[in-house]
Amino acid sequence: MKKLVVLMVLLPVICYGASVVRTIDAPDTNISGLAWGEDKLWALDEESSFIYGLNPVTGVVEVSFEVIHTSCPSYSPAGLTYQSGTLFSSYISGSSSSYIYFYNTSGGYLGNDLLC
After folding, report:
1. What whole-number distance in Å separates Cα of residue 87 and Cα of residue 116?
2. Which residues partner with 101 through β-bridges?
3. pTM to 2 decimal places
4. 54: exposed, middle or buried (C-beta count within 10 Å: 0-12, 13-18, 19+)?
């Protein structure tokens, strides 16, 4: 699976003649979501359920917080996006429903929504 993800990321770079300008180490071992906002690269780790705010130049973790909630303990965080000061984390399971949780960039919980 990891080889597929790398191929999916590198294929557009190769097709458009772009080059990699910087690489940074992942802050954890199972990154399942990335987002860009407030001059940070945000990374969501599926296994540890942490969101990390990385300095995109140095790779230093500037902020991190856990994103586990009791309403969906069997769900795993799987995706991440950013908009207007809010991070949106998706949670999925083997069932047909999923949750989206909302956080501010300091880790404050702002609510959730059930998606069917």
Report:
1. 20
2. 89, 112
3. 0.79
4. buried
In a domain, 18, yes or no: no
Q: At a CB cut-off of 8 Å and minimum separation 6, what does 6 contact?
A: none
| Cα–Cα separations (whole angstroms), residue 80 to 20, 34, 48, 67, 115 | 22, 6, 15, 12, 15
Taking only the tens place, the pLDDT of each residue in 37-83 is: 999 999 999 989 899 999 999 999 999 999 876 666 677 788 999 99
Work out the number of other CB atoms within 10 angstroms of the CB of residue 40: 18
Indicate whether 101 belongs to any domain: yes
Q: What is the CATH number of the domain that holds 79?
A: 2.40.10.480
Is 36 inside a domain boundary?
yes
What does the alpha-carbon distance between residue 57 and residue 40 come to, in Å, rounded to a whole number?
9
> ∠ CA 25-12-21 to the nearest 5 degrees?
40
Q: What is the DSSP letter of 82?
A: E
* CA-CA-CA-CA dihedral for 100, 105, 110, 116, to nearest 10: -10
